[in-house]
Amino acid sequence: MLRIEGLTAGYGDKIVLRGVDLRAEPGHVTCVMGRNGAGKTTLLRSIMGQTRRHAGIIHLNATPLHDLPAHEVPRHGIGYVPQGRRLFGPLSVAENLEIGLMVRAHDPATRERVLTLFPRLRERLDQPAGTLSGGEQQMLALARALCLEPAVLLLDEPTEGLQPSMIRLIRDSVTTLKAAGVAIVLVEQRVEAVLSIADTVVFMAQGQIAETLPAAGLTPDAEPFRRHIGI
Ligand SMILES: Nc1ncnc2c1ncn2[C@@H]1O[C@H](COP(=O)(O)OP(=O)(O)OP(=O)(O)O)[C@@H](O)[C@H]1O
Ligand SMILES: [Mg+2]
After folding, report:
1. Separation CA 91–CA 75 (nearest Å)
2. What does the pLDDT look like over 39-89, one tens digit per residue?
3. pTM over 0.85
4. 10-residue stretch averages of pLDDT, the chain, 231 residues long
5. Hey, whose CA ends up nearest to atom 2 of ligand 1?
C-alpha cells in the first residue's frame, strides 16, 4: 500500500500541498479531483520525488520513498504518466518502451504483455514517438509506465483531449490493471469517468484534501461534485 501522511511540499520556498493524507491500495482506484491549481499534479509529482518536501511521509509498504532521489522512485515500482505526456519524441515506440523496461531490468515477457494490451503500438514499433497521434502517444506513455511492472500507477488526466474510443481504451486498461492488483491513483476531472472506475474519490482544494468519499453511492449530481469542482 502507498501511504502518504501529513505531506507538505512545493516548489522552492513556495508551499503548494499542506498536510496531505492519501492511501492507495492494491486493486483499488483512487480518483483525485479538484479545480485547476488545486495541487493534483503537485501531489503526483511529490510521490515521484519531483518537488521539495517540507514535512510528512510517503511509504510504499514498509519502504520510505520520501527521501529517495527522483530517479530511484520508479525502481520501487511506482509508474507515472504525467499530465500532457512526456515522451522522448525523436525516439521510436520501441525505444520508449525500452526506457521503461530498463528501469527495473525486467524480462522480455513484460514487453510482450504490454504490447498485447496495446496492439496499435506493436504495429508502430519503429515509428518516432513524436509522430504518433495524441491518443497513441498517451497509450505509449501508459505502456512505458507498465513496462516497470508497477505496484502503484499514477495517472494524471490520461484521457484529457482524447476522443471517446481512445478514452474507452485507456479506461479498459485501468480496469485490467486494477484486476491485476495494481494500486491506481487517477487524477481525472470528468465526473462520469470517475464514477465508472473509482473506488474512492478524493477532493482536493487549495493544496489540501477537502474530502475523501467512497465512490459507491455517488451520482453525477451529488453535492460534493458541485461543492469541490463547481459543476
Ligand atoms: N514548477 C512550479 N513552480 C512553482 N509553482 C508551481 C509549479 N508547478 C505548479 N505550481 C503551482 O502549484 C499550484 C498547483 O498546481 P498543480 O499543477 O499541482 O495543480 P493541478 O491541480 O494539477 O491543476 P490542473 O487541473 O490545472 O492540472 C498552482 O498554483 C501552480 O501555479
Ligand atoms: Mg494538473
Report:
1. 22
2. 999 999 999 999 999 999 999 999 999 999 999 999 999 999 999 866 778
3. yes
4. 98 97 98 97 98 98 96 95 81 93 84 93 96 91 93 95 89 93 96 94 97 94 91 67
5. 11
Measured from the CB, is residue 152 less than 6 Å from ligand 1?
no
The residues pairing with 201 across neighbouring beta strands, listed in sequence order, are 31, 213
Comparing CA positions, the residue from 188, 183, 120 lying closest to residue 153 is 183
Among 8, 13, 16, 45, name the best residue to mutate to test ligand 1's pocket (greatest count of ligand atoms within 8 A of Cβ).
Answer: 16
The stretches of 127-201 forming alpha helices (DSSP H) are 134-146, 164-179, 191-197
Cβ–ligand 1 distance for 66 under 6 Å, the answer no
Which 8-state DSSP code applies to residue 76? G
Q: Which long-range contacts (CB under 8 A, 24 or more apart) does 116-122 make?
A: 117/143, 117/146, 117/173, 117/176, 118/142, 118/143, 118/173, 121/93, 121/97
- Kindly state if the Cβ of 14 falls inside 6 Å of ligand 1: yes
Q: Is 39 in the pocket of ligand 1 (CB under 6 A)?
A: yes
Give the CATH superfamily of 2-229: P-loop containing nucleotide triphosphate hydrolases (3.40.50.300)
State the pLDDT at residue 91: 94
Whether ligand 1 lies within 6 angstroms of the CB of 34 is answered as yes
